[in-house]
Design goal:
The complex is a heterodimer of chains A (473) and B (409). Chain A is an alpha/beta fold and 473 residues long. Chain A is built from 16 helices and 17 strands. In chain A, strand 7, helix 6 and strand 8 form a beta-alpha-beta unit. The termini of chain A are far apart. Chain B is α/β, with parallel strands linked by helices and 409 residues long. Chain B has one domain: Alpha-Beta Barrel (TIM Barrel). Chain B is 36% helix and 11% strand. Chain B has an eight-stranded parallel barrel with strand order 3-4-5-6-7-8-9-10, surrounded by seven helices. In chain B, strand 5, helix 6 and strand 6 form a beta-alpha-beta unit. In chain B, helix 4 runs parallel beside helix 5 and helix 6 packs parallel to helix 8. Chain B starts with 13 loop residues before the first helix and ends in an 18-residue tail after the last helix. Classes of the chains: A alpha/beta (473), B alpha/beta (409).
Chain lengths: 473, 409
């Protein structure tokens, strides 16, 4: 049986490296690189000697050794192409999760021209700036509600002209699918989907147009495995699994099915289930009796749960910002490295070009707090000093409650920062959530303590109104 | 060997030679199963050369006999069993058990990862506690508007939580006891608790102010006046160990039959250390854990992974982590996305806020949390619906899923 990534030692990897110690990967030697490779902190591609022709065999063996039990599938073209799956583990703490699930928004072929352009543009430009990163949507899923191959083909062509994002073509009808593929196969779309009924025709299309194919079997893992095995024998390698997504009565089965498949694929090395999983929270919109707000709410809940529970790709209907924002943020968070420390280095930071009259602020060294404050100060173009206190990586409010942020800590951090030498005032702005220690801090620091806003989003307004401080000096 | 190309030229190099030879060889070999070579000698070096260049030979494409019918495979779900099991803890006590509650809740008891294996559904419905504060705290408008008229009276607030929002448990946060807020005496705090015990008949969680010394004074007093009620004292911490207050609280919990909530900040070694200290005074079924809930966007992934790791370790046999885990998803409201007026593209904060709390809690449902402390009624309703849906026997016949590919928008 193949070794799981957690069982592979750096020695196993080292044996398959060219052992040139050339340092081109940025590591001091090949053993160090091997260690990083096992921990997924480096990629095979970072080792350039591996691509010399005489190392072709090593490269192939290494690739095989480190191959994830869940195959990676790519579709789309150019810089917006997406890579899905490629998972090694079921638990995030076993290793970092790789390849965050792209979110695709649907569009149907009866959408009126103007609305279609508007929707594609909305997907193209949707972006939320979160601690310095732009969180975006990843593509469009085209549905055929007309039932007419010509209408579908025309829509596919139109959409392809309006976006460089990847596409998913959604229809169980072979004629419709081929009509779409003829127009946009140069964009390498994902084909949705092969079923128990149409698998042979869809497999032919996938081979003919060289596109990856989704296998859709609602909540029946046995049948799903049967179709996958058949399609593999047919010669297909780039497959994606849709085990069916449902809310309400179907929710339990949805969550258990996604989980069983991923556990079987990762832990049980079940090769027939070792493919990326497609989730379709869009399915909540097939309910007709409930209000649009409730459907959007349900879709948000379902999508968020499936992002946690092993979805490698999502198709959604709602373009509401309040529905999408939690998804984009949670996806970003879940796919960060869990070994990354929760804290940032304490010490003095400067923003803009502070001078002797600039404000002095203070915050905790909890990473999320720090990055939030940092992004607020940067976007407001404030010139200031920021003292980052060592609160053991705990947020301001909890640190005050847990005595990690005390008047004594404030005093020593202020002294260590040396900021007293850089400004010609003695005003320190504490976070609003640390108001409780402001009195004591006046005593320990002998500075004037000002209490800032409870949330750093209020800093620009606060500084406008309260800086320079009036009265006391 | 003497090979010429079709144009009669000599091949210029090995590649050309191969390209010339390969098709002829293939033609020659077609239909053969086996070739025997006689009087044949070869250097090992030649062999290597041949194999390396072999990829240039146009291979006979293996003509897979394409299947025409489906294979029949089936699926045997993964059978996982775990040596460990999470302790069951009952909160609240009825008259027959020495308390005055009409209902109690039991949480914990898991013997497998949450919602992962069909044959291991959760042993208990996940209970939800709703918050009450004994003093005014800054609170987003979206939360306040559900609480009109009750925020000055903790007993009324508790009643509203139970009768209108269906709280299984009420949490009373005795924040006014904070020496830096109102420094309310333990006696007054205990009276507040007694009023709530009169007003509602569900179990209570007693929240302190975070000052280890004051909390100890308040918890010991409350434990005494609510003798036998199996309250949850929220919380005991390593700070109490350091300030030598833990023993008093734990002993009071033991003497008066209450449960303690061991709170630690995203660090399993600390959680284990605190539990070891508690075992000196309390049996395991009087300890639940809070490993810290950070809001979505503000560290939820740390909470998610800590709760997953704790549950995994418990199931693998780590006794010091085999306690039910509780999460305060109320903390989601610390996220500015939950209450800030944002660009209209991100929708009304009246939707965003409750959804923020909901997604924070849903995520931790999947990480194994056994009980929530919550705030917004819409979030409470959704978590209840989802947990009920997840508890439906998943092995029942699959729902017939409607086809979303052809629906009209």
């Amino acid at each position: 049986m193949r070794k799981n990534i957690r069982e592979i030692s750096p020695i196993d990897v080292y044996k398959l490296l060219p052992r040139t110690n050339c340092k081109e990967c940025g590591e001091s030697n090949c053993m160090a690189f091997a260690t990083k490779l096992v921990n997924s902190e480096k990629n095979i591609e970072d080792c350039s000697p591996l691509f010399w022709s005489e190392n072709a065999a090593l490269y192939a063996q290494l690739k095989e050794l480190l191959a994830p039990p869940i195959t990676a599938v790519m579709f789309g073209t150019g810089e917006n192409a997406v890579k899905i799956g490629g998972k090694h583990v079921v638990y995030r703490h076993e290793l970092t999760y790789h390849n965050p699930p792209p979110i695709f928004i649907d569009i149907d072929d009866l959408t009126k021209e103007e609305e279609l352009e508007q929707k594609v543009r909305a997907v193209n430009t949707f972006s939320y700036n979160y601690i310095g990163r732009n969180l975006i949507l990843n593509g469009l899923a085209l549905r055929c509600t007309s039932g007419d191959p010509a209408v579908f083909a025309a829509t596919a062509e139109k959409v392809a002209n309006l976006t460089s994002l990847p596409l998913i073509l959604c229809s169980f009808d072979l004629r419709v699918m081929e009509a779409g593929l003829v127009k946009v196969n140069n964009r390498r779309p994902l084909i949705y989907a092969a079923t128990q009924e149409n698998w042979m025709g869809m497999a032919d299309l996938a081979l003919k147009y060289q596109c990856p194919l989704v296998v859709a079997v609602p909540q029946d893992i046995g049948l799903l495995r049967s179709i996958v095995k058949t399609l593999k024998a047919f010669g297909l390698t780039d497959l994606v699994l849709d085990p069916g997504t449902a809310y309400d009565h179907g929710l339990a089965r949805t969550i258990y099915t996604f989980s069983s498949i991923r556990w079987a694929g990762c832990r049980g090395e079940d090769e027939l289930l070792g493919y990326p999983l497609l989730a379709s929270p869009i399915s909540v919109w097939t309910e007709s009796e409930i209000s649009r707000e409730i459907m959007a709410w349900n879709e948000a809940c379902l999508a968020a749960m499936l992002i946690s529970r092993y979805a490698d790709l999502l198709i959604m209907h709602s373009l509401e910002g309040w529905v999408l924002l939690p998804q984009l943020i949670w996806r970003f968070n879940l796919y960060t490295d869990p070994r990354k420390p929760v804290s940032v280095e304490p010490g003095l930071r400067t923003f803009g070009t502070p001078h002797r009259d600039s404000p002095v602020l203070l915050t905790s060294n909890y990473a999320l707090t720090y990055f939030t404050v940092e992004s607020d100060l940067k976007s407001a173009n404030v010139d200031c000093y920021l003292i980052v206190v060592d609160t053991a990586g705990i947020s301001v409010e909890s640190a005050v409650a847990g005595r990690y942020l005390t008047a004594e800590k404030v005093a020593s951090a202020l002294k260590d920062s040396g900021v007293g030498e850089m400004v010609n005032h003695t005003f320190l702005i504490l976070p609003g959530l640390a108001a409780r220690i402001s009195g004591e801090s006046e005593e320990t620091t002998s500075w004037h303590i000002l209490v800032g806003p409870r949330d750093s989003s209020g800093l620009p307004k606060y500084l406008k109104e309260h800086w320079p401080p009036k009265g006391e000096e | 060997m003497n090979v010429t190309t079709e144009q009669g030229k000599k091949p210029a190099n090995e590649n050309e030679l191969l390209q010339e030879l390969a098709p002829r060889l293939l033609k020659l070999l077609s239909g053969m199963d086996r070739v025997e070579l006689e009087n044949f000698e070869m250097e090992i070096g030649d062999l290597e050369l041949w194999l390396q260049q072999g990829s240039l030979v146009p291979a006979i494409p293996p003509q897979p006999s394409r299947p025409t019918t489906l294979f029949s495979e089936g699926f045997i779900p993964p059978q996982e069993s775990y040596p460990g099991k999470v302790q069951e803890v009952t909160i609240g006590a009825t008259r027959s058990d020495g308390g005055t509650r009409r209902t109690t809740v039991t949480c914990g008891g898991s013997s497998a990862p949450p919602f992962t294996f069909f044959d291991h559904p959760p042993p208990h419905q996940l209970p939800i506690a709703l918050d009450v504060f004994d003093t005014h705290i800054p609170m987003p408008k979206t939360l306040k508007e559900n609480l009109a008229g009750v925020m000055d009276d903790p007993a009324d607030w508790a009643k509203l939580n139970v009768q209108k929002f269906g709280a299984d448990v009420v949490t009373i946060h005795l924040l006014s006891t904070d020496p830096l807020i109102a420094d309310t005496s333990p006696k007054v705090a205990a009276a507040t608790v007694e009023n709530i015990l009169q007003a509602v008949d569900v179990p209570l969680i007693i929240g302190g102010c975070g000052d280890p010394k004051k909390d100890t004074a308040v918890f010991t007093k409350v434990a005494e006046v609510a003798e036998g009620e199996r309250l949850v004292l929220n919380s005991v911490t390593l700070d109490m160990v350091e300030s030598k207050n833990l023993e008093a609280v734990a002993a009071a919990a033991k003497l008066h039959n209450h449960v303690v909530l061991a709170f630690t900040g995203l660090e399993l070694n600390n959680a284990k250390e605190l539990n070891r200290r508690l075992y000196e005074f309390l049996p395991p079924d009087q300890i639940v854990m809070d490993l810290t809930t950070a809001a979505l966007g503000y560290g939820l992934e740390y909470s998610y992974t800590i709760y997953e790791r704790a549950r995994h370790a418990a199931l693998m046999g780590d006794r010091e982590l085999q306690h039910p885990v509780i999460s305060a998803s109320t903390n989601a409201w610390a996220a500015r996305e939950a209450w800030l007026q944002m660009d209209p593209i991100y929708g009304p904060k009246e939707f965003r806020g409750p959804l923020w709390e909901t997604v924070t809690a849903l995520t931790l449902v999947l990480a194994g949390v056994d009980m929530f402390m919550m705030m917004h009624p819409a979030a409470v309703r959704t978590i209840r619906e989802v947990v009920q849906a997840l508890s439906l026997a998943p092995s029942s016949t699959p729902a017939t899923l409607r086809d979303w590919t052809i629906m009209r928008s």
